[in-house]
Specification:
The structure holds 2 protein chains of 2 kinds. By secondary structure, chain A is an alpha+beta fold. Chain A contains 2 helices and 5 strands, in the order E-H-E-E-E-H-E. Classes of the chains: A alpha+beta, B alpha/beta.
Chain lengths: 79, 617
C-alpha cells in the first residue's frame, strides 16, 4: 500500500521508498526527514475538507507535513 | 596574539538552536552577512565562569553535511574551516532535539566525525519528558564519545553545565581544516538509531499534548477558521491595543514641538527642525507601538510552533496558485517587512517557488504601510461600531490586508503561468512540538526590531524629510506673490509635473508630492504629508491643526480611498527593490516586479477612485 492511501491513525511500517518516483532534492529532503525502510509511520491529519491534502504524518518520533503526491512514493506494510 | 575562542552552534532545524543562542548571549548579539553569499551571520558573546569571553556563532539549521541550499552550504563550510569571513570554530555545540534523537543524531554523528572538539546539548528534554521519554545523558555520551548536557534553552535550564563543558572543549588543541567524512547513509542511520536506543531508558505512552492540539488546529474545518480568526484578532489588536501608547507618543511630540518653538527664535533653522525633522520623524515614530504589537504576534506564533501549522493549512490554497505552504512563512513575515520576508525565502528549495514568492512578497502589507493606512483611515473612516468589539476602522484595515493577499495570489497565479513557468517541488517540512515561548525571547526579538525601526526613523526618514523640507521651502516665495509657498517651491514644481500622470486616478498635487519621498520608505509618505501641510499651514495661520484635520479639509473620500488602494500595490520602497536585486542576482526580476506592481497600483487606485465617486461617497 502507498502512504497516501493509509487511513488516518493507522500505524504502518515503511517497506520501501520508490526514490525513482521523486526528484533528487525531494528524495534528499524525504531522507533527511527520516523516511527510511523499517520506520513506523502513521497519518495524523489531512488538509482542507475537500482537498484532503497535504498530510501530516508521524514518522518515527517526528511529525512531518508532506503532499499526497510525494507520499505516494512511500510504500507501507502493516506494522 | 590570543584571539577570543570561537564556538559554533550547529544542529537540525527545530532543535532549538536560536533559543539556546539567545539564552547564552542575551542582548549582546550582532547580525551581519557572510561575504559573497546572502546568508546572515548571527554572533554574540558570553563569558565562561572564570570570566573568559567566548564568541558564539549560530549557524543555519541543516540536516546533513550535504547541502541543498545556500544556508546549509555555509554551515558545512564553516565547520570545515572553508567559509570566507569566518575562522574555523574552536569547538562545536551540537544541538539535538531530545524527543527526536533517531533523526537528529545522524547529523550529530557526522559532525563528531569531523574531529573538532564537540559537545552535545540534549535540548528540549522537558518536551521529551512530556512525551513520556526518560533519557540518560551519560549513556548517550558513552555511545557518542563526546560530553552530553541536558538543556531546556527556552527555560534557561542546563546553561551552567553547558558553559563548563564549553570551557573544557576549547582547551583542546585546535584541529586542522578537514573534509566531509565519507559515511554510508544506511550505516549512519543505524548508528544514529543505536545511539538513540542507548539514550532512551524508559518510554511510557502518555497523552501527547501536541497531537491533541493538532487535532483541533489542523482539523479540516476548524483549523482554517482558527487561522483566520487568529489573523483577524491580530489586525484588530494592532489598532486597539496600541491606541494608548500612540496617544502618549503624540503628546510627547507635541510637547517637544512647543518647547523648540519657545527656546528658538523664528528662523529657517527652527522651521527645518519643527516642520522637517520633528514633524517628519514624529509622524513615523508614533507607529512604533502598532509595529511592536504586530511583531509580538508574529514572534509568538513562530516560537510556539503554530506558524508551521498555518503553512500546513495554507499549502493546498497556495498550491492552487502554484506556490507551496513553505511560502506562507516568508509571506507572513512580509507583513512585518518585505526585506526579512524576502530573505526568509531562502528556506524554499525550489527556485521557481522561491522566485514567485519574492515577486509577490511586497504585496503583503508591511508595517511601513501601517502608518499610511492608520493616518488615512483615522482621518476618513468614522469610528462606527459595526458589531461587538468590531470597529469599522479595523474592518477597513482588515480589508486592505485582504486586498494585498488576494492581489498576491492572483499575481502568483499569473506569474507561474507566464514568466516563472514550470513544476514546483512541493511541500515537505517538520511540524515541531508546541511549546510556550519564553517572554524574554519575544522581548529580545521585539527589542531588535524596535531599534532597527528607530534607527531607520533616525537616519533614512530624518534625511528624506529634511531634504523634502528644503525642496518645499526653496526657493522662497517673494512677498506679494499670488503663489503659495508650495506652488513656488522645487518640490511643488516636480509634483506639478507628476500630478498630470496621477490626476486620472484622482490624486492631487499634495498626494503626488508624498509619493516621491515614499520611494525611500513608505511611511515617509505620512511624514511628507505632515511636512507639506506644516509648511503650507504657515501661510494659513492654522499651525495647531492636526494632520488628520488638514487631510480632511484637503481630500475627498474617493481620493483617500484611491490613495489607500495605491499603497496596497505600489512598490514604494527602495530597500525592497535592492534586496530583490541581491537575492535574484540581477536587475531583471526587480524590473519585472516594479513594473507589474506600479501597473497594478495605478489601475487599482483609478478603479477605486472612479467607483467610489460613482457611488457618491
Amino acid at each position: 500500500m502507498q502512504l497516501d492511501q493509509l487511513p488516518l491513525n493507522k500505524v504502518a511500517r515503511i517497506s520501501r521508498v520508490d526514490w525513482a518516483q521523486l526528484g533528487e532534492t525531494e528524495a534528499h529532503r524525504l531522507r533527511c526527514l527520516g523516511f527510511d525502510p523499517g520506520v513506523e509511520v502513521e497519518p495524523l491529519h489531512r488538509g482542507w475538507l475537500f482537498f484532503r491534502d497535504p498530510l501530516a504524518v508521524r514518522v518515527g518520533r517526528m511529525t512531518v507535513a508532506i503532499r499526497a503526491a510525494h507520499a505516494a512514493a512511500v510504500k507501507v506494510e502493516p506494522a | 596574539m590570543t584571539s577570543i575562542p570561537l564556538v559554533a552552534l550547529v544542529g537540525n532545524p527545530n532543535a532549538g538552536k536560536s533559543a539556546l543562542f539567545n539564552a547564552l548571549t542575551g542582548a549582546r548579539q550582532k547580525t551581519g552577512n557572510y561575504p559573497g553569499v546572502t546568508v546572515e551571520r548571527h554572533s554574540g558573546r558570553f563569558a565562561l565562569d572564570d570570566g573568559r569571553p567566548v564568541e558564539l556563532v549560530d549557524l543555519p539549521g541543516t540536516y546533513s553535511l550535504h547541502p541543498t541550499s545556500p544556508d546549509e552550504a555555509v554551515t558545512r563550510d564553516v565547520v570545515l574551516g572553508r567559509q570566507a569571513g569566518e575562522r574555523r570554530p574552536d569547538a562545536l555545540v551540537i544541538v539535538v532535539d531530545a524527543a527526536n534523537l533517531d533523526n537528529h543524531l545522524r547529523f550529530a554523528i557526522e559532525l563528531i566525525a569531523l574531529g573538532l572538539p564537540c559537545l552535545v546539548a540534549l535540548n528540549m528534554v522537558d518536551l521529551a519528558e512530556r512525551d513520556g521519554l526518560t533519557l540518560d545523558a551519560g549513556k548517550l555520551s558513552a555511545a557518542l564519545g563526546v560530553p552530553v548536557v541536558e538543556t531546556v534553552a527556552v527555560r534557561r535550564r542546563g546553561l551552567d553545565e553547558l558553559r563548563a563543558l564549553v570551557s573544557e572543549a576549547i582547551q583542546t588543541a585546535p584541529t586542522p581544516a578537514g573534509s566531509v567524512p565519507e559515511m554510508d547513509p544506511a550505516a549512519l542511520r543505524s548508528r544514529a538509531r543505536a545511539a538513540a536506543r542507548e539514550a532512551v531508558v524508559a518510554e511510557r505512552t502518555v497523552r501527547k499534548t501536541t497531537r491533541m492540539i493538532d487535532s483541533v488546529v489542523l482539523h479540516p474545518v476548524i483549523g482554517p477558521i482558527i487561522l483566520f480568526a487568529t489573523l483577524f484578532v491580530m489586525f484588530q489588536l494592532v489598532y486597539s491595543a496600541a491606541e494608548g501608547p500612540v496617544d502618549l507618543i503624540e503628546g510627547w511630540i507635541g510637547m517637544l514641538t512647543d518647547w523648540v518653538r519657545t527656546v528658538m527664535p523664528d528662523s529657517l533653522l527652527r522651521s527645518a527642525l519643527i516642520d522637517g525633522v520633528i514633524a517628519g520623524v514624529g509622524a513615523v515614530v508614533v507607529f512604533l507601538p502598532q509595529i511592536l504589537v504586530l511583531f509580538a504576534f508574529i514572534l509568538f506564533l513562530e516560537m510556539s510552533g503554530y506558524m508551521v501549522r498555518a503553512a500546513f493549512i495554507m499549502d493546498r490554497l497556495m498550491a492552487s496558485v502554484g506556490l507551496s505552504g513553505r511560502a506562507f512563512i516568508p509571506l507572513l513575515s512580509s507583513f512585518a517587512c518585505a526585506v526579512p520576508g524576502i530573505m526568509a525565502t531562502r528556506t524554499i528549495e525550489d527556485p521557481r517557488d522561491r522566485l514567485t514568492t519574492i515577486l509577490i512578497a511586497p504585496l503583503m502589507t508591511c508595517s511601513a504601510r501601517l502608518p499610511v493606512y492608520a493616518v488615512i483611515i483615522g482621518a476618513f473612516i468614522p469610528e462606527t461600531k459595526v458589531g461587538p468589539g468590531l470597529g469599522l476602522q479595523g474592518l477597513v484595515l482588515f480589508g486592505l490586508y485582504m486586498a494585498g493577499i488576494v492581489g498576491a495570489m492572483l499575481a502568483a497565479f499569473v506569474l507561474r503561468k507566464t514568466v516563472v513557468k514550470g513544476e514546483g517541488l512541493g511541500f515537505m517540512m517538520e511540524l515541531p512540538k508546541y511549546q510556550m515561548p519564553n517572554l524574554k525571547d519575544i522581548a529580545l526579538g521585539l527589542w531588535q526590531r524596535a531599534t532597527a525601526f528607530l534607527r531607520r526613523a533616525g537616519t533614512i526618514i530624518a534625511a528624506t524629510t529634511v531634504i523634502l523640507w528644503a525642496l518645499l521651502s526653496f526657493p522662497q516665495v517673494p512677498h506679494g506673490s499670488p503663489h503659495s509657498q508650495i506652488d513656488y517651491s522645487i518640490a511643488g514644481r516636480i509634483a506639478g509635473g507628476l500630478e498630470v500622470v496621477v490626476k486620472p486616478i484622482g490624486f492631487n498635487r499634495d498626494m503626488a508630492l508624498a509619493l516621491i519621498p515614499a520611494m525611500a520608505a513608505r511611511e515617509v509618505a505620512v511624514s511628507a504629508l505632515a511636512t507639506t501641510y506644516a509648511i503650507s499651514a504657515r501661510d494659513e495661520a492654522a499651525t495647531e491643526q492636526g494632520l488628520r484635520e488638514r487631510l480632511r479639509a484637503g481630500w475627498t473620500i474617493p481620493m483617500a480611498l484611491a490613495f489607500l488602494a495605491w499603497f496596497v500595490f505600489a512598490p514604494q520602497c527602495i530597500s525592497t527593490i535592492a534586496v530583490v536585486r541581491r537575492e535574484t542576482n540581477g536587475w531583471k526580476w526587480p524590473a519585472i516586479m516594479v513594473g507589474y506592481l506600479f501597473a497594478l497600483a495605478y489601475v487599482a487606485a483609478g478603479a477605486t477612485y472612479w467607483l467610489s465617486t460613482f457611488l457618491g461617497l
